[in-house]
Amino acid sequence: MNGFGRQVRPRAVNVVRAWLPLAAAAVFSALAADKRPVVTEYFGTCDASAAVPLGSDRFLVASDEDSVLRLYRLGRTNAPEQVFDVTGFLDLDYRHPESDIEGAALVGDVAYWISSHARSVGGKVRESRSRFFATRIATSDTRVTVTPIGRPYRYLLADMETDAKLAPCGLASAAGLAARAPGALNIEGLCATPDGTLLIGFRSPVPQGRALLLPLLNPAEVVLGQQARFGPPIELRLGGFGVRDMALVNGRYVIIGGASGSGGQERLFFWDGNSDEANEVNAARFKGLQPEVVIGYPGKGLAELQVLSDDGARRLDGCPCKDLPDPQQRRFRSVWVRPKKAR
User: Fold this and answer.
1) Quick one: which of 24, 54, 41 has its CA closest to 142?
2) Which listed residue, 34, 122, 195, 309, has the most CB atoms within 10 A of its CB?
3) Per-residue confidence of the chain (343 residues) as pLDDT tens digits?
């Protein structure tokens, strides 16, 4: 048992994949740009949308299709080692229970998680997508324990809309638009800062063509029910992209930038946290992937970064991955990026 109720022990999946590398994950190297990146697949879900590293060889992944956290060990791809269902804790709307978790950040032993806060494709309010919550994580060599902290917070958008300094960002009007409408509000990134506060990254809106980052100053208080307090918004030059994910690695921010709408090609950026412009990483390209998560590990730093692809729409066996009839055959892809330099 854990703080969320029943913990599921997943069954192994025996799949013959002669082409799959035996290494923990494959390298997409800027030093070997003429070679196609080799991909590792992790089984159990298609929609890797948020993750935090646990030590040097494990990562905890959320999906934007369910409310389950899955623990993987690098190189052990057949199934997650542990599965934590947070559905009951999140107290979701039973009519539309998709929580759409899109971002995660680790501060000490606490992982913070955030949902998209977006409306439906048809413009309907989806209350289940308005969640900010925290879990305390205890690790050993063999087991991980995940325990909820406080209660899920549902009022981030209301707090943003009543904060006068955020009015120029147009978040109130963006929050009223259908999910795929130009300029509609969509949160996809969450990142720790060196002082233990958080940055919320928006895929959309992109005011004046700049990526929007919003400092959340009191995350530990928010998950105990106190009103959110925000710092001044940051508008970052990111090549016209919004934020797909971001992480703090060795004191520097790593950002996946992507189009605020559908289509386009994602890029990887480094940001020092002080300037108003991020620098694109040379040769980091993700053709054929849908990069949604970037992870830095202790001991690897910026020299080697793991990128996860949200593969819900990837066609496998004639249908989208998320519609495969056998849930154990659903999987997402992982690549390693070794940046040569940022430009």
Assistant:
1) 54
2) 309
3) 445 544 544 544 333 332 333 233 333 333 333 355 678 999 999 999 999 999 999 999 999 999 999 999 999 988 999 999 999 999 999 999 999 999 999 999 999 999 999 999 999 999 999 999 999 999 998 899 999 999 999 999 999 999 999 999 999 999 999 999 999 999 999 999 999 999 999 999 999 999 999 999 999 999 999 999 999 999 999 999 999 999 999 999 999 999 987 667 899 999 999 999 999 986 567 888 999 999 999 989 899 999 999 999 999 999 999 999 999 999 999 999 988 765 5
What is d(CA 51, CA 83) in angstroms, rounded to the nearest whole number?
14
Report residue 169 as tokens.
């960002």
- Supply the pTM of this predicted model: 0.90
No. of H helices and E strands in the chain?
Answer: 4, 24
Record the tokens describing residue 1, joined without a space: 């048992």
Spatial distance between the Cα atoms of 135 and 148, rounded to a whole number of angstroms:
4
Report the 10 Å Cβ neighbour count for 341: 10
CA-closest candidate to residue 266, choices 241, 249, 301, 297: 241
- Hey, where are the domains in the chain? 28-338
Token representation of residue 302: 């910026």
DSSP per position, 130-141: --EEEEEEEE-S
Contacts of 250 (CB under 8 A, 6+ apart): 296, 301, 302
If residue 145 lies in a helix (H) or strand (E), which one and from where to where?
A: strand 144-153
Tokens for 295, please give them. Answer: 């992870």
Residue 343 half-sphere exposure toward CB, CA atoms < 13 A: 7
- Whether the CB-CB separation of 62 and 71 falls below 8 Å is answered with no
Domain spanning 28-338: CATH 2.115.10: yes
Q: Token pair for residue 272?
A: 């020092």
